[in-house]
Design brief:
Blueprint: H1 19-27, H2 31-50, H3 58-86, H4 88-106, H5 132-135, H6 137-157, H7 160-182, E1 192-199, H8 213-227, E2 234-236, E3 242-247, H9 255-266, E4 271-281, E5 293-295, E6 300-311, E7 317-321, H10 335-338, H11 342-345, E8 365-366, E9 374-379, H12 386-394, E10 399-404, H13 413-429, E11 433-437, E12 442-445, E13 451-455, E14 461-468, H14 475-479, H15 482-506
Parallel strand pairs: 1-2, 2-4, 3-4, 9-10, 10-11
Antiparallel strand pairs: 1-14, 4-6, 5-6, 6-7, 8-9, 11-12, 12-13
Length: 511
């Protein structure tokens, strides 16, 4: 499984990676041994694919590896239990349903961690999954699991029909993808926006040091001047470019905002999208969130945010607060329980760690000079949530902007995986994607998931691009993760029927 994972560009090992684990279930009679060996295999996959989290937090990495491996084990345990009740064939169908249900659930709870959603395995090979515009990444998960199941049936029985089905299952989606990829954009447009993407290349572990903010702001202004052309409409800076956790009530007085205003006096038609650390105090009588922070000197409650600011050339400033927060970094999952492990799990990501506030819904920014254009301000981790990205598209976003800070993991596969996942979002919604990374990989991705231009690891500079404003609505944009919803419905229905069957077996009088 790990050999097929991004950034490696050969995903085919994913189609056979689960076969040995299913064979273990077939050959192992001891329940305890079966669970132990399958867990070890899944742990190895998690370790090889995401070991780089250790660079940011050893404690957080250990917790993530053990917890995520256990969650992946659950569909195998369910399969083993179900097999005894309904036989292997029906149990394998339930295994597929269980895995899709697990992934769907893993997008939507306090420990949300969709990084290893199986469909993400094609992120470095988008030419194979152009049909994600119909299914989203969970379509890729379904593809992988089904091929593994049919290959397992073939290995177990050596019946050629299962090999034939697996071969057809591999070929047809690939041909469909090749056909879709050969088509021109489904929404030809004469509208476009010229963007300049800034990569300042600041060491994230020193970015928030005292005394460094003014030097960084000066660098931002210099890069902005270098990157600006006569036709430039929008400058994009990375996540938390403006440090200091500034009060949003007087955000106009933030030194970075004032500096950007000075730049806009020379370039009055350019808007600026930039990441910032901000906070706001709650007024008396105002409804408080579930877990606000408390400021004892003034007896007030407040929230801190990981924020995207749109500094408009007309003088206004808009805000969007990151909504999909990183568990253990920006939000405390199940606070009453995990508070016991706060010191172990908390990652210090430069002043934006802890239980951050968030917006309740997605928001797209419109340009002050061209109201017919809108950009989705995706902040870092949010770009991994395919279904949530659709909320920005529903807000009329013409293209997706990912502002991020990928340097926490060092020069590992982590920042390359994150970049490649954005290629899947481009396909799902047929939108161009631009990434502005503090350091990592800033790039421009077209609506087929092709990387048109990029600025690599540990490089300071900028990219310039003309981005077409695409407004085609994909099937996936209309429906969201419908595969996961269907799987959960079947899981609940089939699960209840199995419970009834067990009760009747144990109580014949009820039959």
């Amino acid at each position: 499984m790990a050999l097929g994972w991004p950034p490696l560009k050969l995903p085919y090992p994913l189609f056979i990676g689960l076969v040995p684990l299913l064979m273990l279930e077939h050959l192992t009679t001891n329940q305890k041994h079966f669970g132990k060996y399958v867990y070890l295999g899944l742990f190895t996959f998690n370790l090889i694919s995401t070991w780089w989290v250790w660079n940011a937090s050893p404690g957080g990495a250990v917790f993530m590896l053990f917890a995520n491996s256990f969650l992946m084990l659950l569909p195998f345990l369910i399969y083993r239990k179900t097999k005894r009740l309904v036989g292997e064939s029906k149990a394998l169908i339930f295994f597929v349903i269980s895995w899709l249900s697990f992934e769907h659930f893993h997008f939507r709870w306090d420990l949300a961690y969709p990084w290893l959603t199986l469909g993400n395995g094609f992120a470095s090979s988008p030419e194979l999954v152009q049909w994600y515009e119909y299914t989203g990444a969970q379509g890729g998960s379904l593809w992988i699991i089904l091929i593994n199941v049919f290959l397992f049936k073939w290995v177990k029985s050596l019946r050629s029909k299962f090999a034939t089905i697996a071969s057809i299952g591999l070929i047809l989606p690939t041909l469909w993808s090749m056909y879709l990829g050969s088509q021109q954009t489904k929404c030809p447009t004469m509208k476009s926006v010229n963007v300049s993407i800034i990569q300042p290349n600041i060491d994230p572990y020193h970015k928030f040091d005292n005394g460094s903010a003014s030097d960084q702001i000066r660098m931002f202004t210099e890069l902005a001047e270098e990157a600006t052309q006569a036709e430039t409409d929008l400058l994009i800076f990375p996540e938390t470019a403006l440090t200091g956790n500034h009060n949003e009530e007087n955000i106009q007085h933030h030194p970075g905002v004032r500096s950007m205003r000075g730049y806009q006096l020379k370039h009055p038609k350019v808007d600026i999208l930039i990441g910032a650390s901000t906070h706001r105090f709650y007024k008396a009588g105002e409804e408080l969130p579930k877990y606000p922070r408390y400021y004892e000197p003034t007896n007030e409650y407040y929230d801190s945010y990981n924020t995207a600011l749109q500094i408009n050339s007309d003088g206004s400033v808009e805000t969007y607060h990151k909504s999909r927060l990183v568990p253990g970094v920006e939000s405390m999952p199940f606070p009453r329980f995990f508070k016991l492990f706060d010191n172990l799990l908390k990652l210090d990501f430069g002043g934006v760690s802890g239980n951050l506030g968030s917006d309740k819904e997605a928001k797209s920014f419109h340009y002050s000079n061209r109201k017919d254009y809108a950009v989705a301000p995706l902040i870092c981790y949010e770009s991994v949530f395919g279904d949530y990205v659709g909320d920005f598209v529903a807000k009329k976003a013409d293209f997706l902007a990912v502002i991020t800070n990928d340097g926490w993991w060092g020069n590992t596969v982590g920042h390359r995986q994150h970049k490649d996942y954005a290629r899947l979002r481009a396909i799902e919604y047929r939108r161009y994607v631009v990434r502005s990374a503090n350091t990592g990989i800033s790039c421009v991705i077209d609506d087929n998931g092709n990387v048109l231009d990029e600025l690599g690891w540990w490089k300071k500079g900028y990219l310039q691009a003309e981005i077409p404003a695409l407004q085609y609505t994909t099937y996936y944009a209309k429906t969201g993760d419908y595969l996961g919803r269907i799987a959960q419905f079947i899981f609940l229905f089939f699960g209840l029927s199995l419970i009834v069957k067990v009760i009747r077996q144990r109580n014949p009088v009820l039959s």
